[in-house]
Amino acid sequence: MTSILKSFNLKTKAYCDVINITEQVQQLIINSEINIGIVNVHNAGSTGAISTVEYEPGLVKHDIKDLFEKLIPYDKNYAHHKTWHDNNGAGHLRSFLVKSSQTFPFRHKKLILGTWQQIIFLECNEKSRSRTIHCTIMGE
Amino acid sequence: MTSILKSFNLKTKAYCDVINITEQVQQLIINSEINIGIVNVHNAGSTGAISTVEYEPGLVKHDIKDLFEKLIPYDKNYAHHKTWHDNNGAGHLRSFLVKSSQTFPFRHKKLILGTWQQIIFLECNEKSRSRTIHCTIMGE
Amino acid sequence: MTSILKSFNLKTKAYCDVINITEQVQQLIINSEINIGIVNVHNAGSTGAISTVEYEPGLVKHDIKDLFEKLIPYDKNYAHHKTWHDNNGAGHLRSFLVKSSQTFPFRHKKLILGTWQQIIFLECNEKSRSRTIHCTIMGE
User: Fold this and answer.
1) From B116, which residue of chain C is nearest by alpha-carbon distance?
2) Does residue A103 register a pLDDT over 90?
3) Sign of the alpha-carbon dihedral angle for B48, B53, B56, B62
4) How close A45 gets to chain C, by Cα (Å)?
5) CB A54 to CB B45 under 8 A?
6) B63 and C95 in contact by Cβ < 8 A?
7) Cα nearest neighbour of C3 on chain B
8) Which candidate in A34, A59, A98, A115 is best for mutational testing of the B interface (most B CBs within 10 A)?
9) CB contact under 8 A, C97 and B99
10) CA distance C84 to A88
11) Which residues in chain B have their CB less than 8 angstroms from residue C67's CB?
12) ipTM above 0.90, yes or no
């Protein structure tokens, strides 16, 4: 067994940008010497998150935004804002709930995902950001 | 260290079926040659999810359903429905929130879980489905 | 590649205690012989959870509590209460939603986290508890 750590960068838009990162993760697996195993996909940051979703405009541009506006609205006076006099309490809470990493299996160098399932990075911050996604590929 | 990928199948019921898969995952570990390590449990699909819960009827038949009906109700006109003219926007959002995989430790070939903690598959789709759960077992 | 399992204990307070466990996880990595890889952080229990958050008083003492009181309030008559005649339905649902484990990458024996990102254990139970956190460190 072997293990490698690789990363790639993203430019994100503010407020609930949903970015399809499946191809970047898949390419790192192809470039590795590992045929079967797992990949841990992680964002080092407290206002981003990793999950999967069907990457189509209804969910990506509307439904995910609407869901979070209902659960954790941006326009609310969070206690976090008093600590730093910033405005990203919602971003922290969204990232806390969805979490910054997820681990996926692959075989024959191919991610095991559903036909309609893509790996996404969720920008929770209220500013556009540069993000680094770390992928640890482990297997044989 | 070594790594193996095994899978098993499930038949699920529509609308928030919660299925205890602890024994299937445990059995794959017992059948492997690995005594200590981790197991990544993953559903390849965008309307299912993996988590843990105490598998008793109150939570499984009522509370989890009620929670999701409050957060992400089935009967709502999601933007996703316009893309495909289907009706499973809630299923996608529930799966996105809980996520399609989780990773657990084991030792002496036994999953390290709480007394009241079971691994579950959550069917988020509005149709009954056949599901394949992929388990990557990694360790020594 | 090699893999080790280590654990540490916590004393928690009831009702949404958020505990920064970054240093304990980091120390186990330093004490291991592994320089680069992943660590799976897991709580064996159905009323606790693992995630990350910026560990500052606004989020930790107020915003996370408020979020969960909105989504999954403690003071509600959950079906779970009828099964065991206890009072921790909310604790189970919160743990189910955030989940009991998360996996993080590290290199040069250092966790790859954002500047404002700490690993936390979330006590969801309505009683104070003794908790064991299991860390599986895997890599080279």
Assistant:
1) C46
2) yes
3) negative
4) 4
5) no
6) no
7) B139
8) A59
9) no
10) 40
11) none
12) yes
Cβ atoms of A31 and A137 closer than 8 Å: no
Q: For residue range A116-140, what is the model confidence (pLDDT) as tens digits?
A: 999 999 999 999 999 999 999 999 9
Residue B27's contacts (CB-CB under 8 Å, 6 or more residues apart) are none
Cβ of C78 within 8 Å of Cβ of B99? The answer is: no
Q: Which residue has the tokens 């069907």?
A: A54
Which of C26, B30, B15, C101 lies closest to A102 in space, CA to CA? Answer: C101
Strand order in the sheet with B130-139: B2-11, B130-139, B37-43, B101-107, B110-111
Burial C64-86, CB ≥16 within 10 A → b, else e: bbebbeebbebeeebbbbebeee
CA dist., res. C30 & res. C33, Å (int) = 8
| Tokens 């990544």 -> residue | B40
Which residue does chain C place closest to B107, by CA atoms? C5
Task: Please tell me the distance from the alpha carbon of residue C43 to that of residue C101, in angstroms, as a whole number.
Answer: 6
The model's pLDDT over C40-91, given as tens digits with 9 standing for 90+, comes to: 999 999 999 999 999 999 999 999 999 999 999 999 999 999 988 889 999 9
Number of CB pairs, chain A paired with chain C, less than 8 A apart? 110
**Cα A41 from chain centre:** 8
C-alpha closest to that of A75 among A85, A54, A63, A89: A89
Cα A65 from Cα A85, distance rounded (Å) = 24
Q: How many CB pairs under 8 A join A and B?
A: 110
